[in-house]
């Protein structure tokens, strides 16, 4: 739920930023005509939004990677690997026992 709210807030801020870039609050009538000419030759709104999203995505990805590298603990990683190997060994043993029981039931040996 928190991630969705953050994404919505980010998109709203992005749209407001792009809207302010296109139409600054202090533009007068003559400046508006020049702004329209600049819009025709300048980058489109879609390309500006795309560029902003890519830059936000890159910075978020870099921050997440940095956080992951800071919080990585080798001791926890070793414990997880050890638990995985012991649990798979136990499953392998019990699967063998179950297979032997099923084969002995099918062959009719008591």
Automatic annotation (TrEMBL):
Pfam families: Apo-CII. Keywords: Chylomicron, Glycoprotein, HDL, LDL, Lipid degradation, Lipid metabolism, Lipid transport, Secreted, Sialic acid, Signal, Transport, VLDL. Residues 1-21 form the signal peptide. Its main location: secreted. It is found in: Secreted. Belongs to the apolipoprotein C2 family. Component of chylomicrons, very low-density lipoproteins (VLDL), low-density lipoproteins (LDL), and high-density lipoproteins (HDL) in plasma. Plays an important role in lipoprotein metabolism as an activator of lipoprotein lipase. This is Apolipoprotein C-II. The lineage of its organism: Eukaryota, Metazoa, Chordata, Craniata, Vertebrata.
């Amino acid at each position: 739920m928190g991630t969705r709210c953050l994404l919505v807030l980010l998109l709203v801020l992005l749209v407001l930023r792009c809207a302010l870039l296109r139409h600054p609050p202090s533009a007068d009538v003559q400046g508006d005509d020049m702004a329209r000419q600049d819009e025709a030759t300048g980058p489109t709104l879609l390309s500006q939004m795309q560029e902003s999203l890519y830059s936000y995505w890159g910075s978020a990805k870099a921050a997440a990677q940095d956080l992951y590298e800071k919080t990585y603990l080798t001791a926890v990683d070793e414990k997880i690997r050890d638990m995985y190997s012991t649990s798979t060994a136990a499953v392998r043993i019990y699967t063998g026992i179950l297979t032997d029981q099923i084969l002995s039931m099918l062959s009719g040996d008591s």
